[in-house]
TrEMBL record:
Pfam families: Hydrolase_6 (PF13344), Hydrolase_like (PF13242)
Position of the signal peptide: none
Protein name as catalogued: Uncharacterized protein
Record-linked InterPro entries: CDP-alcohol_PTase-I, HAD-like_sf, HAD-SF_hydro_IIA, HAD-SF_hydro_IIA_CECR5, HAD_sf
Top-level division of the source organism's lineage: Eukaryota
Taxonomic placement: Eukaryota, Fungi, Dikarya, Ascomycota, Pezizomycotina
Organism: Gomphillus americanus
GO biological process, alphabetically ordered: glycerophospholipid biosynthetic process
Gene Ontology CC terms: mitochondrion
NCBIfam families from the UniProt entry: CECR5, HAD-SF-IIA
Amino acid sequence: MRLSQSEGIDGVLLRSSKSLPGAREALRLLQRQGIPYILLTNGGGKLEKSRVRQLSKQLALPLEENIFIQSHTPYADFEAKQKQGCTLVLGGHGDSCRKVAESYGFEKVIIPSDIYHEYPEIWPFSAPFKKYHASVAKPLPLGMFVPSKASPEPREGMHLRINSMFVYNDPRDMGLETQLVLDLLLSHKGFLGTLSELNGKSDLPNHGYQQDSQPPLYFANPDLFWASQYHLSRLGSGGFQASLRGLWNEVTGKQGIELIAINGGKPYRSAYEYAEQKVVHRLHTMYDDDLKGVAIQDNLKRVYMVGDNPASDITGANSFQSPEGRKWLSILVRSGVWRGEKPKNELEKPGRIVDGVYDAVRSVLHEEGWPLDTNPEPRAVAD
């Protein structure tokens, strides 16, 4: 076994919720040839088992949960101390992302709806979403700090303090979620309703911004666009991040003040390191019996990334330097967000361009010398 395959989902296997031509056939071909593959998507917002069940139905093909990686799936492997405290999870429909974070082991998860339901004055323009927020809201663990003579300063254990922020998926109420993130980035130690006295101090790093134990901010998906059923690409989670960064520049008002955040998903290295680990695990589950006494990792030489987005899929594969020396090769499909634009830089240049995922799989098998006409039974895979 010298090759493996990593594939995107939106724009490669699906367009919105509809299966793309050749998607099912491509995966069946990989299964029948016994080639390990994973599905690596910058999408998210649902439990992995729910997404796999849905995708299996859409493709009319049995799929296993352990091949499926969403942009926020690596958060499940965070250390226990990173899952402690109060976590604000943003994006997604209803409370779906809360359920995902809880399934990952995060201790105390709240969503914007919880805050708005108890403190609607925090963003008055969410009034049209009032019923929506109320339908999924849960009581906050503590009340939000409101300065008064009796309580001029926030107190640990008495007032709501956010210890971390995660943008799992596209925000549904962007105004509210933008305001909450800005409030917390400017806060004193993550206490909602406060403003750090360090903001704007030129003698401190970053002019004092995000230097007062504010909660770290994680973005799971940097994609600016995604392929929907509409004929033009639509703004994705990366659009929320871009607008937030623009507002941050306006709010801070100074050149060189960074919005400090941790990005995940494609094209970032962390996503590809995680994906490669899963590919190796997949190889173990498929070929342990056949490769006894042989280091499996030494048998995997090349990983092919099939994607529709030059800025994420192709850039990530081209820039990734495998710690194990494996070669990642990129294939761009015409079935997604790419519309024939010239690459903006060398990293966006794919190794090849094909019409769809089935063409990609066949071209790889042909190049690697795998027979296309044989029809072996799919190899059983252990969980």
